[in-house]
Design goal:
Number of helices: 24
Mean pLDDT: 82
Shape: elongated
Distance between the termini: 45 Å
Low-confidence stretches: 1-29
Order of helices and strands: HHHHHHHHHHHHHHHHHHHHHHHH
């Protein structure tokens, strides 16, 4: 009886220890309404983009029909306003059209407006010298002109960004002085009736008086007076976040970064910083939120590519190595925990087997006590069965942990290689930009950076890595998918580790990406092409009605 009690206690300790070990591996998600709202907004990005494209299409339709120069200039301004923080190349295209028409018709108001806008766009992408030349070519508007404030703010933004870009002890102070000079001149023009008065006052106190309390008060007024899903709201929230960061209040910093990011996403602002900053903060300060931070940095990269902001892509490229290093350290820590868990399970299993040995030995010695032996035998038979089941489960768990480590290491290696290639490419782009700028070959630089071959190479690199990663994770996917198809419609790999378009589509469906638009974005096809591929394969399926759901049930067990 004493031996059986020892066994029970040992089993109880085993279960408690295993539970504790598994609990230590799990992570705690952020329970915050703002983060939930941001995640939902990111999930609805395709719908927001669709609404934006419809609005732009309506303006383009009006442009195509309009023949009056003044009305056409107004329509050009409308479409530039829509593209301004949505798509850089399109914004540049239409602002140049507006400038050309204004110069052709001698409309000085729109010459001034379009030149300032052109300089602002050049500043956004880091072409500071070109932006400066554009503003130099334009006489400063009179103080009573409505464009004077915008002109001086364009100068302030240009020199402020230029100073940050230089980051040295010679040119940075020079550009900072110029930026403050123009911001002071903007302050002298303010009457208190301007639509963005509060934001401009916040900028004045942030950069000139360096009064954090005063600047925060004006920024909050600007936020309260702006529509929630607007660029003004996003800018004010971002400014408030930076104010709290400078004061060391990181809880408020994160809250207002999230608010700014929500506004960026819902108003389809692709030229943004909030998601990038938020992802970096989560990686550096909250190791339990790596998955969330990874989604945010991925969305930030997608926005930068969509907007075609080369400067922003270079900035993200500088952040990515630190993020990758943090992620690898976390994976290493998790793997170490799993190793300890495996060792602990084996040790506990050995202890259980030793207990069993002594129990059976004790039973032989207690042969004279028939009733007790009978009870012990019944208990031991039941316990042996439970231990056998536990042994099988532990073996399966051990094998699953080993397979998981193997697949994770392979996926981390693929991810690291992809990041390394992008970092190398960004370095080459940086060298190319420096060389072309020094040689005054800006036209050739724009032509080179606008080449579609770059996007095609990125697409091929992404697809190749996706194929390799997916087949590494689900090596039996093609075989299991073929069980849903008749013999004459069987699919196969054209090359090792390379999926066909049909297989890539259903690989993404297996991963839970069901929407054809999302699949089209990931695979660089049109939604109609995706629909055609899906329809063609579904029509061949043994069971057409449940084919997509059947695909979701494939590869429920990862096999080597």
């Amino acid at each position: 009886m004493k031996s059986t009690k020892t066994l029970r206690v040992g089993i109880l300790k085993t279960i408690l220890l295993i539970t504790a070990l598994f609990s230590s591996v799990s992570s705690t998600a952020i329970d915050h309404k703002l983060f939930a709202e941001l995640d939902e907004a990111i999930n609805q990005r395709p719908q927001f983009t669709q609404q934006k494209e419809k609005l732009i299409a309506d303006i383009k339709a009006k442009i195509a029909k309009e023949r009056q120069p003044l009305a056409l200039l107004r329509l050009y301004k409308q479409i530039v306003d829509q593209y301004y923080v949505y798509q850089y190349d399109s914004a540049m295209c239409y602002v140049r059209k507006g400038l050309a028409l204004a110069e052709q018709t001698g409309n000085q108001q729109y010459i001034t407006l379009n030149t300032i806008t052109l300089a602002e766009l050049l500043t956004l992408t880091g072409l500071y010298n070109e932006a400066n030349n554009k503003l130099d070519s334009l006489p400063e508007p009179a103080a009573d002109n409505s464009e004077c404030i915008r002109y001086r703010m364009a100068r302030f933004t240009l020199y402020n960004n230029w100073a940050d870009y230089c980051g040295d002890d010679i040119y940075k102070p020079k550009y900072q002085a110029k930026s403050k000079q123009y911001l002071k001149s903007v302050y002298s023009l303010l009457k208190g009736t301007e639509p963005n008065y509060d934001f401009l006052m916040g900028e004045y106190h942030a950069y000139i008086t360096e009064d954090k309390k005063a600047s925060l008060s004006f920024y909050i007024n600007a936020l309260n007076n702006a529509q929630k899903n607007s660029r003004s709201y996003a800018m004010a929230a971002f400014a408030i976040a930076n104010n709290y960061s400078a004061s060391g209040n990181y809880e408020k910093y994160v809250d207002y970064l999230v608010k700014s990011a929500i506004s960026d996403v819902t108003s389809t602002i692709k030229e943004n910083l909030s998601l990038q900053y938020l992802a970096s903060y989560l990686y550096e300060h909250d190791r339990e939120e790596l998955e969330r931070a990874e989604r945010y940095i991925k969305a930030s990269v997608e926005d930068a590519y969509f907007y075609n902001n080369r400067l922003r892509l270079l900035e993200i490229a500088k952040v990515m190595p630190r993020i990758t290093e943090t992620y690898q350290a976390t994976i290493k820590s998790q793997n170490q925990r799993m190793k300890y868990l495996t060792v602990g399970i084996l040790a506990l299993l050995a202890a259980i087997l030793i207990n069993l040995y002594f129990i059976f030995k004790k039973n032989k010695q207690l042969h004279s006590q028939q009733k007790e032996i009978s009870e012990n035998n019944d208990y031991l038979r039941n316990m042996t069965k439970q231990l056998g089941e536990m042994n099988d489960k532990l073996s399966e768990a051990n094998k699953g942990l080993s397979d998981t480590n193997h697949h994770r290491e392979a996926l981390v290696k693929i991810f690291t290689n992809l990041c390394t290639k992008y970092i190398d490419r960004m370095k080459n782009y940086q060298k190319l930009v420096k060389r072309k700028i020094k040689a005054n070959q800006t036209s050739e630089l724009l032509s080179t950076l606008s080449s579609t071959r770059i996007s095609e190479e990125d697409a091929q690199l992404f697809l190749a890595n996706f194929d390799k990663a997916f087949l590494n994770l689900y090596p039996n996917f093609v075989d299991e998918l073929n069980t849903l198809l008749p013999p004459d419609a069987q699919l196969k790999l054209s090359m090792p580790n390379s999926l066909s378009p049909e297989l890539r589509i259903y690989a993404l469906i297996r991963l839970g990406v069901k929407d054809s638009s999302e699949i089209a974005n990931l695979l660089f096809y049109s939604p109609q092409t995706i629909y055609n591929y899906r329809s063609a394969l579904k029509n061949k399926a043994l069971n057409k009605d449940t084919f997509d759901n059947d695909v979701l049930q494939l590869c429920t067990v990862v096999r080597s």
